[in-house]
Amino acid sequence: MAPTPLQSLLGLSLLGADERIFAEAILAAAAATIGFALRGHRQTVRSAGLMMCAVGLVFDIAGAPSQRELWGQSSTALGLVLVSCGAIKILLDAADAAAHRSRAHFSTIFKDLLTILLFAMVVVTVLVKDFRVDPTPLLASSAVVAVVLGFALQETLGNVFSGLTLQLGKPFVPGDWVRSGNFVGRVQGIGWRSTAVITRANERLEIPNTMLAKDVVVNYSNGIVADETSIGLSYNAPPNFVREVILETLRDVHGVLQSPPPEIYAWEYGESAIRYRVKYWLSDYAEADRAREAVTTSLWYALRRKEIEIPFPIRTLRLRREKALTSETEAFEREILGELRQVDFLRDLRDEELRLLLPGVTAQKFGSGEVIVREGDNGNSLYIVRSGTVEVLAAKEGKQVHLRDLTQPAFFGEMALMTGEARTATIRARTDAELLELSRDGFTELFKAHPATVSQIGEVIALRMSERRELLASAPHGDGVHSRSTWLLAKMRSVFDLAGLR
Fold first, then answer.
1. Distance between CA 410 and CA 248 in Å, rounded?
2. Whose C-alpha in 65, 196, 432, 497 is 20 to 30 A from the C-alpha of 410?
3. Does position 464 have pLDDT exceeding 90, yes or no?
């Protein structure tokens, strides 16, 4: 029994007839076993190619004893076709998996077309070699069929070739964020007819390839990308001051890059406001919506604290008059005085002394996640927590370490206020929080009007300095509290320009 074409191709022609059949049976069993084991798994080698090889070997085994008969010749020819196509599929799957190893989704249109072309070449070769088929009439009829199908499937073929153009030209690859017309989303893959795009709403869009090939495609995945928002602010706010406030706010917004730095433009004069363009940079366009929401929220809190008005687009008539002291303002003043007395070094001051601080007291609102003070910055104010929760953070090995939470009636910032030294920790709002801010100007008025309060406040603060390792290291050593008190009073007289007061 002469070897079959497949047996010759596999190098089994030197073996005897029984040995060739046995070798093919072993190969078929091995391919089938591995194919069944790989079903449902995303491996480099897929099960389909292995199963095709196993079935082809079975056909070759069945037709080998009867090669001279038509059914035997057909069986061995089919076996050769299946094994050849299975080997082609295994190689293409392996190459495709290696090329897209790091991607969850990728385009297969080029691989599919190449697979069909190679399969067709195998079939034609077998027909010519084994069945002595003249390929000329076949090719002529195929050309006629191709022309007819070309007219009938003109739009479909246009999508196919547009998909090939997109895949070869690579204006985008799966995983990129793109915009085409009114469509924005992440590319999932390029198919025969369309390109699949997943929107931010997790909707799957099938955009025809011809549409993408003709339209302008904006790719947001070529590195960092800019986004912007706009806001109208009061004419009473100087543009340079507005720019400083917005830039300071953007420093603490998660996702907004500081290099390149954000750009603020005073863009146009509106009927009720100056319109500003706020341009900032992102490392990932997928975070654009979250970043814009965070920017908008942070700006509201920051502008509110700085008393920069966001005008309504309406016409208003304002009648200004001197504010009279009413029972409501008196009640509010008593409330503020009560909160000031929660600070240990202000608790023993008389009412007339505390009232000197009131002009320098402002209520500030901070949104969750906003930085209130930053470690290393100079500080000229003290904060008292009225509501909400803030957290104390310290830098350690390049990371922010959480130390503790503060709630009402906690306060912070007194050392930077009194000594002029840099902030020793970062304070950030864990929830929406309202705080009272006491400025240095108010304490300057208090100390100049009542010089005795300098020593009174300094001694109370000095008692708590033993809990601060950073300040203990900087304070001179001597007779305990008295030594620290002397050092602190000297710092306070220097900061508040009280050199002539004793």
1. 25
2. 497
3. no
